[in-house]
Amino acid sequence: MGPDGSPYRTAWVPLADLAARRDAWAALAAGAIVPNVFYAPAFALAATPLHGRGVGAIVIRDAEDRLVGLFPMRLSRTRWGVPLPLMVGWTHPFAPLGTPLLDPGDPAGVVGAAVDHLARAHPGVPLLLPCCPADGPVAAALDAAIARRGGRQAAFGVHARAELRSPSGPDAPPAILDPRAKEHARQRRRLAERGAPTFDLARGPAAREALADFFALEAQGWKGRAGTAAASRPAELAMMTEAVTGLAETPGAGALVARLRLDGRPIAAGVVLTSGRAAWFWKTAYDETLAKFSPGVLLTLDLSAALLREPDIDVVDSCAVENHPMIDRLWPGRRALSDRLIGQSTGPGFALACRLETLRRRLITTARQARDRLRGR
Question: Residue 235 is part of a domain; what is its CATH number?
Fold first, then answer.
């Protein structure tokens, strides 16, 4: 029994220390009411050396000592350049989703236990959950728990990114659209004049071998020329390899590597991560010398059809920016996300945090617009 008669017990645990509870953590990730593969242990622990400095998690256990909630985050003191602390949910360039892991039995109660823990440990400190669902069961649990405690909320960076969702019935709208289907068919025919194009989806132990083809394609392209390809950065290469390998070996999770090959030579590759009944189209690369044949688009079309045939996958997050020029045309489904700022019922920090966060985002937008104008000259 927790404080104030709560049926939940909470604790703050450094991220690396959670490895000792890996089995329970993996079970929670696999059964979460809204999955988040980036908070699954295989991925999170792989990312810890590179992106996990100062990261811990509010861990929630029920009366039977079962892990029912996990909120990875870190305490930030420098987000706005003023001495106003902020707890920030854990995201990073390789993990574009901040959905906490919640057991489906009592999601609002689990959220409430986490909010109460934060109020005791850091009175008056706001919480920012980046890239969190703007609707659905996790959003509803957050709304209910925060309203019950007299807390306050504000949404920033509201946006929608493309997702692939299995049709709900025979009369449902199509899951895939291809407004340039005739052009893509022509490109396939032209590509076939150069050799035999084949598509395959590697999983399990084979995924690690296929991952090498993705790294090679990425290194041959613009990222390789810019020095930002994983093959040029040993720490990133190690993290991605460990994450894919770990997920491929984890019950309730997985990793798939899709390849489009021409006479056996990879010309496009995509990495898909899975947790529960959800998947994430995480990374993609293609042979830029064959750009006139759009190998990346052809791979995505083949992969989309293959994922819709997977019996254990209901939805695929594109991990793409809003209005992405390729995936938004192919996947009509959308996932609404926002950065959710949560204030406790006491303390003046929330109002000031809202003003500072608004200013911060205005400055970022102005800087980007100035950069784009300079690039356009």
Answer: 3.40.630.30
Domain extent, residue 136, equals 3-163+336-376
| Pair (196, 130) in one structural domain | no
Q: How many helices (H) and strands (E) does the chain have?
A: 11, 13
5 has pLDDT over 70: no
Question: Based on the domain organization, do 152 and 289 belong to the same domain?
Answer: no
Closest CA to 109 of 12, 32, 7: 7
Report d(CA 263, CA 142) in Å as an integer: 51
CB of 130 closer than 8 Å to CB of 76:
no
In terms of domains, do 276 and 362 share one? no
Nearest Cα residue to 88 out of 339, 319, 348, 337: 339
On the CB side of 88, how many CA atoms lie within 13 Å of its CA? 21
Q: Which of 55-64, 132-141, 172-181, 349-358 has the lowest mean pLDDT?
A: 349-358
Closest by CA position to 338, among listed 160, 115, 93, 72: 160
CA separation for the pair 207, 257 (Å, rounded): 6
**CB burial class (10 A; 0-12, 13-18, 19+) of residue 241?**
middle
- Per residue in 168-186, pLDDT (tens digit) is 778 888 999 999 999 999 9
To 10 degrees, the CA torsion angle through 223, 275, 60, 90? 10
Q: Are residues 18 and 116 in the same domain?
A: yes
